[in-house]
Design brief:
Layout (H helix, E strand, L loop, with lengths): L1 E17 L5 E20 L4 E3 L8 H11 L7 E6 L10 H11 L8 H8 L3 H4 L5 E4 L4 E4 L7 E5 L7 H11 L5 H15 L17 H7 L2 H11 L4 E4 L6 E5 L2 H10 L8 E3 L6
Parallel strand pairs: 3-4
Antiparallel strand pairs: 1-2, 2-4, 2-5, 5-6, 7-9, 7-10, 8-9
Helix pairs in contact: 1-2, 5-7
Length: 278
């Protein structure tokens, strides 16, 4: 069988105080994209996860091992991942792959959400990829109606960026919000998004508190954001902890046109759109 693991776009990221577990309280709008990894699943003599683009064990292999520890009796599987989502790009590719593996055991293993949370903060939201308001460190997911029409141009970086490094820099810079400010932001996001509007209709809320830290560590991100503004993006931001720069456009035709107008140094730009709920 063939499964798809959609990329996750953070349309905003509001960072609050660090928790006792070392993770930060967040509020974000997560939007799955049509950009997705392709996962081919077949039977084999023993479990094996193959992903040439990721060295060593990846989250998908950890997800399969976690299912076995919880007693899942599905047949031995060979899982081959074709990466289309850039690695370490702030687009949740590893989490998406892990969640796709966990979905294989839906209804057969108790508390998949708990296992997802053990694997990583973003895996829980990817179990059912859909537009959502996310809280906690990513484990609290509130589904929302699909957003109105928009499309994106993504400018990934040749080199990934460590989320831990970005959060540490954000802490050093004193970025982030109080718990009260975070709650206020959550209310504004819910009110803006619950009616199914296009994110471009509430672009003033599309803020990433980690952006200054990411740009400070990787100045070329700022150059990519400027390039997206120059070709007409209605909003620009860094997704997740970066380093991918994102420009939002009214529709896919405008995004295609903008990507074609970028300077040659941004030839790796990817055009995508929100994946709709089934």
């Amino acid at each position: 069988m063939i499964a798809r693991a959609p990329a996750k776009l953070n349309l905003c990221l509001y960072m609050g105080p660090a928790r006792d577990d070392g993770l930060h309280e967040l509020r974000s709008l997560f939007c799955p994209l049509t950009l997705a990894d392709r996962i081919e699943i077949g039977s084999d003599d023993e479990d094996e996860v193959v992903c040439p683009e990721v060295e060593g064990e990846n989250l998908a292999a950890a997800a399969l091992a976690g299912l076995r520890r919880r007693g899942w009796r599905g047949p031995p599987l060979r899982i081959e991942i074709g990466k289309r989502i850039p690695v370490a790009a702030g687009l949740g590719g590893g989490s998406a792959d892990a969640a796709a593996v966990l979905r294989l055991a839906a209804g057969e293993v108790d508390d998949l959400a708990g296992l997802a949370a053990e694997l990583g903060a973003d895996v829980t939201s990817q179990l059912d990829p859909r537009f959502a308001l996310v809280a906690g460190a990513g484990e609290r997911v509130e589904p929302l109606p699909d957003p109105g029409e928009f499309a994106v141009v993504l400018i990934p970086s040749a080199d990934g960026l460590s989320a831990g490094e970005v959060y540490a820099e954000a802490d050093r810079l004193g970025l982030g919000r109080t718990a009260a400010e975070l709650e206020e932001a959550e209310g504004r996001l819910r009110a803006a998004a619950v009616g199914g509007a296009s994110p471009l209709d509430y672009s003033e809320l599309l803020v990433n508190d980690l952006q200054a830290a990411a740009v400070g560590l990787r100045p070329e991100i700022g150059e990519a954001l400027a390039a997206l503004r120059q070709v007409g993006a209605g909003a620009t931001l860094v997704t997740g902890s970066g380093p991918t720069a994102v420009g939002l456009f009214e529709h896919i035709v405008a995004a295609d046109r903008a990507a074609g107008s970028l300077p040659p140094r941004w030839a790796s730009a990817i055009v995508s759109a929100p994946a709709r709920s089934a």
